[in-house]
Specification:
The protein has 430 residues and is an alpha/beta fold. The chain has two domains: 228 residues, Rossmann fold; 174 residues, Glycogen Phosphorylase B (Rossmann fold), CATH 3.40.50.2000. It is built from 17 helices and 14 strands. It starts with a helix and ends in a 13-residue tail after the last helix. The C terminus is likely disordered.
Length: 430
């Protein structure tokens, strides 16, 4: 059953999207998915944490109903997660029940991390709600990236939770081919139940972006970063590279501006001061969409300092696609999916080497013609293959598959009416 079919017969399919680690619409992938589904005829609710920047606990935006719960915890370690996750799961279950009582939920989409949100979906699976797993992060690899041993008990627990998440799902959406392989091999899902839905911005997102000279803060060159500031994002490598560029090589004509927030933000602010970089490195925190567009439009070079580790090597970074959308040359470490995304639009520094990173930045800053060629290459590739418009058909096919799949346990009224020849879509019965 498609959304159009349902709308023409009785009602629009009702979708509930669960997000734990970011608020919406700040989570750009989830926001694009929600708006796309709404435009395609689905009725969409989102449950997510509430950040300090969110205007209200509940609101309707672009036809999407957003329900936000208080989020007093932002974990940095195991003890923190033991507080954050039970709190989040309890709120999400309570809000999901509230949504379901107002109108039956047809599909629950859970966006990891963590790989615990299937627990919220399980009671609804028992009454016929379909479960779609939106696989944002490879959580076992993410924990290893944060310093845990691959054979530790906690990593093995995450591997179990990942398997249970895939086992609960009737459909999985992967952000790239590496994540699709995880769904097929570790998740043991059928190929027909796994869809690659990339996270590139839509073509119009930065259409009105204009350069803002003030963003350079009086410097000749601007190097920009946008993204989360966690331990695995490699911001320390970027600060080390900035130290080399500014303090060792005397390039005080270069401004480094970093937009975003996260658990490491306070520590990074202190480190910038300790390194004597306050005149050349600005940590902007979370900025508005307009400020972000101005920053990236003004930048000479955009950077992705994500360190090489198992997690980052197989992950597609949204920031890279955003840089390409604005036609900006990129510097990043040599990561598998980073190369697959950016191709010739990026220079690739030696893995986890701040000196090589600094050399690549300066190489581009001193060669405006090369910057222009690389930026144009990235923009053309983005328009041809990577913008959100190319992902929309895959998202809609994933939902059509989910709505055609058999539920974990059929509601009594449906089971009584259904015959063996009813033509249900093939796939794993739940």
């Amino acid at each position: 059953m498609t959304a159009a079919d349902a709308a023409g017969s009785r009602r629009r399919p009702h979708v509930l999207i669960l997000v734990e680690n970011l608020s919406v619409p700040f989570d750009r992938r989830v926001w694009q998915e929600a708006r796309t589904l709404t435009s395609a005829g689905y009725d969409v609710d989102v449950i997510c944490p509430r950040s300090a920047q969110d205007p209200a606990a509940t609101e309707v935006r672009d036809g999407v109903r957003i329900h936000r719960y208080p989020s007093p915890y932002e974990a940095r370690g195991t003890a923190g997660y033991l507080m954050e996750y039970p709190w989040a799961l309890a709120w999400q279950l309570a809000l999901a029940l509230k949504v379901h009582l107002s109108r039956r939920i047809d599909v629950i989409q859970a966006c990891n991390p963590p790989d615990l949100l299937f627990l919220v979906a399980l009671p609804f699976r028992l009454v016929g709600t379909q479960f779609v797993f939106d696989h944002h992060d490879a959580c076992p690899e993410l924990l290893v990236a944060k310093g845990r041993s691959r054979d530790s008990r906690l990593v093995r627990l995450l591997e179990l939770l990942e398997r249970l998440t895939f086992a609960t799902a009737c459909v999985s959406m992967a952000t790239n081919e590496s994540y699709r392989r995880i769904a097929l091999e570790r998740g043991r899902m059928l190929a027909d139940d796994v869809f690659v839905v990339r996270s590139g911005p839509d073509l119009g997102r930065f259409g009105a972006a204009r350069e803002e000279p003030a963003a350079r803060r009086g410097k000749r060159h601007l190097v920009a970063y946008v993204g989360v500031m966690g331990i695995q994002e490699g911001i320390d490598y970027l600060l080390d590279a900035a130290d080399i560029v500014v303090n060792r090589w005397g390039r005080t004509d270069v401004q480094f501006s970093l937009a975003g927030s996260g658990p490491e933000f306070p520590r990074l602010v202190e480190r910038v001061a300790q390194m004597g970089l306050k005149d050349n490195v600005a940590l902007l925190g979370r900025v508005s969409e307009e400020e972000l567009a101005e920053l990236l439009a003004t930048a000479d070079v955009c950077v992705n300092p994500d360190e090489w580790n198992e997690m980052n090597d197989i992950s597609t970074m949204n920031k890279v696609l955003e840089y390409m959308a604005l036609g900006k040359p990129i510097v990043q470490f040599d990561l598998r999916e980073g190369r697959r995304s950016a191709g010739d639009a990026s220079l690739y520094a030696r893995r986890n080497d701040p000196l090589s990173f600094a050399e690549s930045i300066v190489e581009l800053l001193d060669d405006p013609a090369r910057r222009a060629r690389m930026g144009a290459t990235g923009r053309e590739r983005f328009e041809r293959e990577l913008s959100w418009e190319h992902s929309v058909p895959h998202l809609l096919r994933a939902y059509e598959r989910a709505l055609g799949a058999r539920p974990l346990r059929r509601p009594a009224e449906t089971a009584a009416a259904e015959s063996p020849s009813s033509g249900a879509a093939s796939g794993r019965a739940r």
